[in-house]
Write a structure and sequence with these properties.
Chains A, B: InterPro entries: Glutathione-S-Trfase_C_sf, Glutathione_S-Trfase, Glutathione_S-Trfase_N, Thioredoxin-like_sf. Chains A, B: This is Glutathione S-transferase family protein. Two copies of one chain form a homodimer. Chain A has helices spanning about 20-30, 40-45, 50-55, 70-80, 90-120, 130-150, 160-170, 185-195, 195-215, and strands at about 5-10, 35-40, 60-65, 65-70. The first copy, chain A, is α+β, with helices and mostly antiparallel strands. Chain A has two domains: about 5-85 and about 200-215, Glutaredoxin (3-Layer(aba) Sandwich), CATH 3.40.30; about 90-195, Glutathione S-transferase Yfyf (Class Pi), Chain A, domain 2. A four-stranded mixed β-sheet of chain A has the order 2-1-3-4. In chain A, strand 3 and strand 4 (about 65-70) form a beta hairpin. The two termini of chain A are about 30 Å apart. In chain A, about 40% of the residues are buried.
Amino acid sequence: MSPIITAFEQSPDRGKGLSRDVRVRWALEETGQPYEVRLLSFSAMKEPAHRKLQPFGQLPTYEEGDLTLFESGAIVLHIAESHAGLLPEDANARARAITWMFAALNTVEAPVLELITARFLESDKPWSKERLPLIQDRIRHRLHQLSAYMGDAEWLDGAFSAGDLLMASVLLRLRLSGILDEFANLAAYAARAEARPAYQRAFAAQLAVFTSHSSTG
Amino acid sequence: MSPIITAFEQSPDRGKGLSRDVRVRWALEETGQPYEVRLLSFSAMKEPAHRKLQPFGQLPTYEEGDLTLFESGAIVLHIAESHAGLLPEDANARARAITWMFAALNTVEAPVLELITARFLESDKPWSKERLPLIQDRIRHRLHQLSAYMGDAEWLDGAFSAGDLLMASVLLRLRLSGILDEFANLAAYAARAEARPAYQRAFAAQLAVFTSHSSTG
C-alpha cells in the first residue's frame, strides 16, 4: 500500500512549490515510491482529526500502514533510510549527509523562517521596514559561509543526498527575495537540484493541485 | 578511541548548561560512552582550522576516527543509532522518536531562537520592548500544543528517547524566562529529564569547565 501524505488544498504560495509537502514528494520521487495525497483545507488543519496525526496542526504528515510521522525532515529521513537513492551506503558518508539535513533545517532555514515570520506576522508593525535588512543580513551571513564551503562542488558532500534535497529546498525559498542570486555558486546549486527529474515531478504534482483548485474557486 | 567533542572554553551562559554541547554530552552519557572535550575560545571558532570541521563556525563538533560531524541534532542521532539507549528497537517507534527530534529542533526551538536573537542582537533597537511579547506568544502557542499532546504522559512517546533529550533541552532554555512554568506538565517533564543521572553528569561536566576557567580568568 502506498504511503499517504497531506498537502494544502489551497497552496499558500499559489503553486510556487515552497510548501513543505514538496520536500516529501521530492524524496518519494527520488526513491521511486508511489504515494497518495490527502488535501486539507486551512480549517481542517486545526481540527482534532488532524491534530491526532500532527500535534502542531501543520503539514505534511506521512501515513504508511500503522505508522504516522510528521516533520518534513523526519519524513524525508525515513524515506531515505527505507529506500535506496538518498543516502550513501558508506556509514560515515551517511552520517555526514544526515548532518547536512540538520544544517539545512536548523542553521540555514532558521533566519529564512524569521524573514517569513516578519513578512507574514509583523508586516503591519512600525518596525517592519527597518528590521527587514537585519534579517536579510543574518541570512546572507549563513549563505556566505555555505558558499565558501561549497566552492564549485556539485553537491554538498559527494553524490546528491537527502542533505542536498533539504538544503536546495531551503535555498529555493530565497529566490524571489533576490538573496539567492547574490551567491552565484548557491544559485547554480539550487538550479541543479531543481533540474532533477524527481524535483520536476514533485513540483508538477503540487502545481496540479493549485491549478485544479484555483480554476473552480 | 573515544570521540572528541568541542565545547566553549568560556561558557556564554556561565555554566547554566544551555549550550548545545550539553545535548551531545547528555547523549554520550545516556549511552555510556566515554568522550574527550576540546575547548575552543570565541576567536578559535572563527578560524580556518575550526571552519574545516564546522563551515558555520559553531559548536559542537564530533570527531570519531575519520568521521567529523556537526549539528547537535545530527550528532545526537548518530550516537543514538550507534549505541543502545536512545532509540526504541521497533522500527515504527524509532521513526516516531526521530520525528520528535525534528519537532524539538524545528517546530519548538524555532520561536525560542527568535527570542534569543531578539535579546542578543536587537535589544538596542527601538522596537525591542514592544516586540518581545509577540515572540513570547509565538512560543506559548507551540507550548500549548505540546502541552495538550503530552497530557500527563511521562515521555513524548513511550520510553525516554533522543526525542525527549532534545525536546527537554529546548524547554530548559525557557525556564529562566518564566514561560516554561506556565505549563505545569511541561515543566514537570523537563524536570524529569533533568533529574536523569546522565543529564546530571553532562551538566556537571560543562559546569566544571566554566568553574575552572572563571577562577583563573
